[in-house]
Amino acid sequence: MRTTISRRDVLKASAALTVGTVFASPTRAAAPAPVAITPDLVAAATREGKLVFYSSMDLPVGEKLGKAFEAAYPGITVQIERSGSERLFQRVAQEFDSNIHAADVVNSADASHFIPWKKSGWLMPFVPEDVAKYFPDNYRDPDGMAVTTRLWLSSIAYNTNLVKAEDAPKSFADLLDPKWAGKMVKGHPAYSGTIMTTTFQIVRELGWPYLEKLSKQRVMQVQSSTDPPKKLSLGERAVMADGNEYGIVLLKEAGQPVEPVYPTEGTPTISGPTGIFATAPHPNAAKLFQAWLHTRQTQQFFVDFTGQYSVHAQVQPKAGRRKLADIKLMKEDPAGVEAMTEEIKTRYARLFRV
Amino acid sequence: MTTTTTSSSTAKPRIDWTRPVLWLFAAVLVLLILLPLSWLAVFAFTDKSRHPTLQNFVTLFSNPDFLDPLLTTAIIATTSALICCIVAAPISWLVSRTDMPGRQTIRALVTASFVTPPFLGAVAWELLAAPNSGLLNQLYRLFAGDDADALFNIYSMTGIIFVISCYTFPFVFVLVANALDTMPGELEDASAILGGNAWTTARRVTIPLALPALVAGALIAFLQAMTLFGSPAILALPAGFHTMTTKIWSLFQYPPKLELAAAAAVPLLVLTILLLQGQKALLGRRGYSVIGGKYGAPRRVELRGWRWAALGFCLLVLLNPVFLPYLALLNAAFSPNATTLVTPSTATLHNIVFVFTELSSTQLALKNTVILGTATATIGTILALVIAYVTTRKVIAGHRVLGFLATAPVAVPGIVLGVGLFLSYTRPPFVLYGTLWILLLAFLTINLPSAYQQLQAAFATIHPELEEASRILGATRLQALRQITAPLLRTGVIATWCFIFIGVMRELSAAIVLFTSQTKVLSVLIYDLNEGGDLAAIAVLGIAMLVITFAVVLAVNQIPMSGGNAGAKLRNG
Q1: Which tens digit of pLDDT belongs to each residue from A181-198?
Q2: pLDDT confidence of B8, banded at 50, 70, 90?
């Protein structure tokens, strides 16, 4: 079990330390023993026949993942509930308050959500074998309640038909130039966990005055962080002020006229942990899914297919894609996000009027 | 009050079962409406620990964050209602009372715009008139140059008013056209015989007779525009402003501020009650029975040279709610990029394959929607029929209260009703959240006012003398209803059923509060997709939704009902 220390250390040095610590306490006393995918687990999961996955991943990406699981384990259907992480957080609260337990597994783009969920005892401790072996400590809950499935960025981007490379913004500060007024699009922190995390990091690094000035730029306000890349590729707006960098990368690879910009101030970084609800109606399917999701094979498929990053030590970046180590990243701080969520929602709504 | 006891002197052996049944319906209605409204009232006037307070209203009326949306909503609702009347009145007159060609086609096209859910229309208009990527703006720039400002900006107040009007004017059209259809020709003839020219006849006879329908239509249009959630959520938020409904929705963000949301509904409720009272004061004392024992065929006005111009006008209007949006949706469904014009070489089935084979919510949402649509339409029609009968024929004491209760939900924005239902049915004795039942109740309550209005109007135009004649000849109340009233109402009943079914398809605002992952409906799925920017998937789902609606509406119109011919004869004169 301790054979991969060197790999883990390498990983810590490259990505983890620059990005910050998602799960604070390093003591792992309470974590249950790692579980491998056994024929018994598969049989029990297949008997349940269904898995309900609450997730904020861009829909085509999430559904592709679900189909891959269905193909790997015939007889289990995956139902994906996609919405913004903040919206999902509200719905989970609403459903749990009413004693409705439909969700098996949840992947949130706001890592801070796992703090109250864990505190309320809503999560089931479960450590897949691959997580124990190949995932760095600061990307897994010490008690086995959640593990960071994916890392991704919220960057700036522009439409290459509408903006010449030399005129493109290089930094967040550039976005305040009057020439971008009415030409930008961004997501909403009360809907999207990605944008909530991004807004927190931007406020920490640049302060509220930056957002106050940005709000005067007549920015088109969409909800999900998956939407700005799409609005950009349609040519509806020239510049994306925040949104999924992986959306831009995938659209660019598909030949759309979009180009990411990694701002000089640093690029906001988001980690998306996955956990199982203690009340999961399909607990075995949930465990199988959680174990499968964090295998090297799935993580590699996920990285290749979705343009996001993995903290699995054995996963290789896809050729031609930018490495995390080459990008100046903003640090993550889920506890900070949790403490500031209300302030961000309130002040943001006041500034941007919606 | 009309507490007419069955006269004991005429020793009738049979018991009249109608009365207890009617009381039962009344009780159901009271429960259905009063329970959620009471919970709303409780929340509006209390704080978190349920101590009475007016603080919610103080917050509401001292904060520009709430006052601005209130004003915006008032402007949108008033303007939309006006536009609807201005557009719908001439079209309904043209199809109903003139010899314009293609009258049935125009009716069908208006139905098509009615069937289109407003949120789908809003997405379609995003595809058409988003300032930069919109198809119409792209077309305009072909002529005006690449740097030209956008011709249309759908993300604006005007854009929202336009889109709301597109999908609200059918309410006015249906009411006015029905009134004109059933208006007896004799009255106009009499005016003509007495020397009135066409204009005098219109002013003194036709318009006054159609006025109640127009006023009712304006009212419904106003209330629809006021309580609509989907279109403003899709178009106003990107533009950076709120309407009342989107503001209320934002209050449900975690942690939910239900007290403020309930309080925010009160101004809308008060406004609606005032409007309904105003309508009564305007029309109250006159009688408008236009179908009596005798009737004559309405005569068609000959337009002569203007016939084709009139048709052109109708088609031009219908370009906006029907032709353009449907084209945009079809284009997006088959295009690799939602706002690029599809060509044979770029056409793709990818979006269709995605929606029907990869998107895991599609099947469930389709199933839930069809089940809910059918069930709500059937139960709702029966309920509305009984209430309309009770109130127009004044059968039981307190019929006025019933009529008010059946109309009251119109004042409650769907989203707020959703909360009321949520509060009512998440605790014993009725734990319904998480099941389709709570959605059924929501859709029933929301659609009851228009269903009731429609059937009440149908009853009001059938003079009780027909039923009375039957009862004098020895029929019981039920027999009279079955043999006389039912055949006359056939058209109205079928129309109401379809109305409700379509209403369920269009409904988003309550569903968005009440759905869970297992009880998702199509409207919510489409709204979710819009928030993620998956426009092509919306186009595919939207078209599928329209196909289903049309198929169901057509099928229902084929159902024979007792005395169907009589109804048909009545309409054709």
Answers
A1: 999 999 999 999 999 999
A2: very low
The whole-angstrom separation of Cα A275 and Cα A282 is 14
Placement of tokens 């991704």 in the chain: A152
Contact A239, A175 (CB under 8 A): yes
3-class DSSP state for residue A343?
helix
Domains of chain A: 5-152+269-323 (3.40.190.10), 154-268+337-352 (3.40.190.10)
d(CA B455, CA B386): 9
Please tell me the CATH code under which domain B16-48+349-573 is placed.
1.10.3720.10
> What is the DSSP secondary structure assignment for residue A167, as one 8-state letter?
G
Break chain B into its structural domains and give their ranges: 16-48+349-573, 64-250+312-346
Task: Tell me the count of A-B CB pairs closer than 8 A.
Answer: 125
CATH number of the domain at B64-250+312-346, out of 3.40.50.10260, 1.10.3720.10, 3.40.50.1360, 1.20.1070.10?
A: 1.10.3720.10
Rounded Cα–Cα distance for residues B445 and B417 (Å): 9
> Model ipTM?
0.91
B64-250+312-346 matches B16-48+349-573 in CATH topology: yes
For residues A248 and A233, what is the distance between their CA atoms, to the nearest angstrom?
8
Q: Which residue matches tokens 């978190």?
A: B48
pLDDT digits (tens, 9 = 90+) for B532-558: 999 999 999 999 999 999 899 889 888
Long-range contacts of A35-38 (CB under 8 A, 24+ apart): A35/A126, A35/A127, A35/A128, A35/A129, A35/A287, A35/A291, A36/A128, A36/A129, A36/A291, A37/A128, A37/A129, A37/A288, A37/A291, A37/A292, A37/A295
Among chain A residues, CA nearest to B147: A162
Q: Which residues in chain A touch residue B133, judged by CB atoms under 8 angstroms apart?
A: 231, 234-236
Q: What's the first-to-final CA gap in chain B, in angstroms? A: 37
Gap between the Cα atoms of B169 and B106, Å rounded: 14
**Number of other residues whose CB lies within 10 A of the CB of residue B549:** 25
Distance CA A261, CA A270 (A): 16
- In whole angstroms, how large is the CA radius of gyration of chain A? 20
**CB atoms B517 and A83 under 8 Å:** no
The residue ranges of DSSP E strands in chain A, in sequence order, are 50-55, 77-82, 105-107, 123-124, 146-153, 156-159, 184-186, 220-221, 239-240, 258-261, 269-277
Longest Cα pair distance anywhere in chain A, in angstroms?
62
Give CA angle at B355 (B351, B359), nearest 5°.
130
Residues of B in contact with A252 (CB under 8 A): none
Is the pLDDT score of B140 beyond 70?
yes
- Nearest residue on chain A to B239, judged by CA atoms? A220
pLDDT tens sequence across B466-516? 888 888 888 888 888 888 888 888 888 998 999 899 999 989 989 998 999
| pLDDT mean over B153-171 | 96
Percentage of chain B exceeding pLDDT 70:
92
Residue type, A285: A
Chain B environment of A233 (Cβ under 8 Å): 337
| Contact yes or no for B170/B113 (Cβ under 8 A) | yes
Supply the Cα-derived Rg of chain B in whole angstroms: 25
Of B131, B241, B358, the CB nearest to A354: B241
- Per-10-residue mean pLDDT, chain A, length 354: 45 47 64 94 98 94 94 96 95 91 97 97 97 95 96 98 97 98 97 98 98 97 97 96 97 96 98 98 98 97 95 94 94 96 96 94
Beta-carbon contacts of B463 under 8 Å, excluding residues fewer than 6 positions away, are: B289, B291, B292, B293
Residue B55: count other Cβ atoms within 10 Å of its Cβ.
Answer: 15
Residue B161's beta-bridge partner residues? none
